[in-house]
Amino acid sequence: MRRLYANLERESLSSEWDDWQKHVLASAERVEFSDAGTWGPLAALGKNIPAVRWLTRQIRCSHPVPPEHPREESVFYMLAAFCADNSVLGYLIDTWQYYCRTRNSRGVLSCARILSLVNRHGEYPHLNALYNLVMGDMLREYRLYVTPADRRSVSSFLTDRDFHLLEKYLPDFRPFGFRERVLAAQNKMTHLPTGEALARECCMSGSVFRKRFKQEFGLPVSEWLRRQRRERIERMLRDPGIPLGEVAERNGFNMSSTFSDYCRRNFGMPPGRMRKSFGES
Predict the structure, then answer these.
(1) Domain extent for 117
(2) pLDDT for 106-160, tens place per residue?
(3) Do 115 and 239 share a domain, yes or no?
(4) What pLDDT does 67 receive?
């Protein structure tokens, strides 16, 4: 961080922005990332569009890649967010996309928090484009989070705590409705889920959970879990890379004969024949 400050001071000496840059660096010393009440001086400095353009160009030249620990340079991201200019907005968008691409949860949360606090009263409409981008990326990431492991090619890099924070930062992001909580709970379980286990994971009593579940999903939780199990078994049997014994074990069958009987009852044929038929189709 000190090196960046020194680079900016040196470059500003040969520009018309020397005095302005001194005010930026002095303000940066007083800004606390955790206290939005200290960000006020940056809003005034951000009104100088040509100067902020110059600053973001210098930052790109000095640090083409955003910092691994974004709080080290978050003050400049805050300043850029206060500037209503498309080229400066490009700096904000590029930084956000870099953190998403590199799966840097700390960077993602830092950018989302700054966006939330700078535009909390809607007085910076130029940030709407960034907000829409952030919303789209986080909805895609949340879909990864709630998708069962055997149905996705990559896991989300964000945690349950991260999504709770993003729900605070993004007014239209509501990932923890009842349905989403159930799917996320099911996804986190390494063992075969039960209705009681899902209720505990959702911090609800069994009776309240079952009633709410039927209202939301349109069928009892026991029937939903039976359907989920059948679909999971069928998906796994379609993958020749998963041994039949592993398919049985991961779905709660301790004996191959019991698993074979289950497949005959539910699919009309034993698991080996099912796998063969999938390979021929």
Answers:
(1) 2-144
(2) 999 999 999 999 998 888 999 999 999 999 999 999 988 888 766 777 889 999 8
(3) no
(4) 79
> Is residue 181 included in any domain, yes or no?
no
Are 81 and 108 in contact, with CB atoms under 8 Å apart?
Answer: no
Do 136 and 11 lie in one domain? The reply is yes
Structure-block tokens of residue 115 = 């966006």
- Asked whether residue 211 is assigned to any structural domain, the reply reads no
Q: Is residue 159 part of a domain?
A: no
d(CA 273, CA 63): 59
Tally of structural domains, the chain: 2
Q: Which band of pLDDT confidence, cut at 50, 70 and 90, is reported for residue 1?
A: low
Tens of pLDDT, residue by residue over 89-115, are 999 999 999 999 999 999 999 999 999
Please identify, among 86, 109, 144, the residue that sits at the C-terminal boundary of a domain.
Answer: 144
